[in-house]
Give the backbone structure.
Amino acid sequence: MIGEYIKLRGKVILLVLLILLIFGSSYYLFDMPGITVLYPLLLSFVVLMIVAFVDYYKIWKLHQRLQEEIYENPTNLIEEDYQKIIEKLKEEEDIFRNRTIVDYNNMVEYYTVWAHQIKTPIASMRLNLQSEDSDLSRRLICELNRIESYVEMVLTFLRLDSDSTDYVIQEYDLDSMIRLSIRKFSREFILKKLSLDFQASNYKVLTDEKWLSFVLEQVISNAIKYTSRGGIQISMLQEGILYIEDSGIGIPAEDLPRIFENGYTGFNGREDKRASGIGLYLCYRICENLGHKIWAESELGVGTKIYLDLHRIIIGIE
């Protein structure tokens, strides 16, 4: 604060010191006794220090009041002007915030309606394709599953920071959740001729079933997507820590620390133009909200392991 005060009053201080120097030089040039020079200079310096201290105190008090952005009882015209500026800025901030909230709610409402509407033709196409059993129909059903997965990602992204997010925290059977997620991708396993090694854990997890199922489906979907041969293993590393391992292309070491960032696709994503870089980000955010942890290990050309620590629970979700 003292340094800032010197910067603020630097010119005035230099001017006063210059005047004192001129004052002292005048006595010296006229060859007057030293006491007649030293005493007025010392007295002037003391007065200067008192004035500087009072001025510094006023500046400090003004700084404190400006930090609080409150002038309940302005003491002078300058403070009244500051108060008007602050009130105007607050009004503009409120208007901008309200406009942003309205625009965001409109956007969420539009995309939510769109996502629900698009599910109807998807369901209709799936029913039509299930009536015939051919290689083409099986492939088209897989593509429909992928489209539906993208729609779910949109809905999840919209609901992620919503005040009305419907968390239902209770104990669920983890094996049942995993089996449902695996069943959703059964056709992809068959088409790509991938093996599946799922080891039941009989573990009860305290979580939200819908949101954790989304995480499981995203991780399994990625494992299938980037695995062309071999298979996927789902097992419990130790009690409460689940891992999903694939024998796919792996993740470059330089990309690994950033795979949970929003929009980050890395080398694999640049190779696959359809990658959005949002799936793992959503998984990370959901796990964070649920109180779980997610991390990855990978070796290029060998495969990837995604770990889920299901021990922790979040406090305050209703």
